[in-house]
């Protein structure tokens, strides 16, 4: 998705020609370090769930899906830095066929990370809804087998959509469809929240007797959603401005912050595992066991 993601070469000229705002350039070491930390943290989440049978439930399967999305977002930047390093060392022909193919693969990882995050958060929201308002039927409705099937379908759809978006990224309808996913996800989760609020008001006695763990899960989702919006919304806005008003001075001034927006995306992958650990005592205990075992080995 070269005209959306690989803006490092033209962002300076855009800001210089259409506004007085200089491009904010951050050292590549910052991106690389944050990306490495994000990969390692989310890998710990996956290992913790894989090694502890007590965590192998639908809720944690959905959290693992979000962790994979975050890890792909970090891995995208690591691979991009490696490609840039090889090109600077002369091992890759600039603008060559291999570099073009590699760029498409790396861009696909980035798009897959965003789509996977959107779908994972939506599935987690649906899971929390069922947990709170269909608690007695939850284990019959949401089984581990069904959860895995849902995730397989989800990731198959995200993969196909990601490849399609990268292939046709030069078309404006593709950009519109890509950016529309963000508000659609928010609208879906907002509808669930409004419905939950209305049910909570009409069934106050019922919700007051719900286990605290169920409400804790809803709060965790709220925090995850807030962090996701804060980290990804600036990039989505950048895509829209670059598509529809690239020559406007105010748009160009905002686009000069492209690398700052990129760091925010990388930070999302670093923050999410801390949210899991802070909100989930079971996962926090699993993390401690992993660290202690590795320390004494």
TrEMBL record:
Localization per record: Cell membrane
Complex formation: Homodimer. Interacts with corticotropin (ACTH). Interacts with MRAP; this interaction targets MC2R to the plasma membrane. Interacts with MRAP2; competing with MRAP for binding to MC2R and impairing the binding of corticotropin (ACTH).
InterPro entries tied to this protein: ACTH_rcpt, GPCR_Rhodpsn, GPCR_Rhodpsn_7TM, Melcrt_ACTH_rcpt
UniProt-listed GO biological process terms: adenylate cyclase-activating G protein-coupled receptor signaling pathway
One term of GO molecular function: corticotropin receptor activity
Similarity field: Belongs to the G-protein coupled receptor 1 family.
The protein, known as: Adrenocorticotropic hormone receptor
One Pfam family recorded for the sequence: 7tm_1
Gene3D superfamilies per record: Rhodopsin 7-helix transmembrane proteins
Membrane topology: Multi-pass membrane protein
This protein's GO CC annotations: plasma membrane
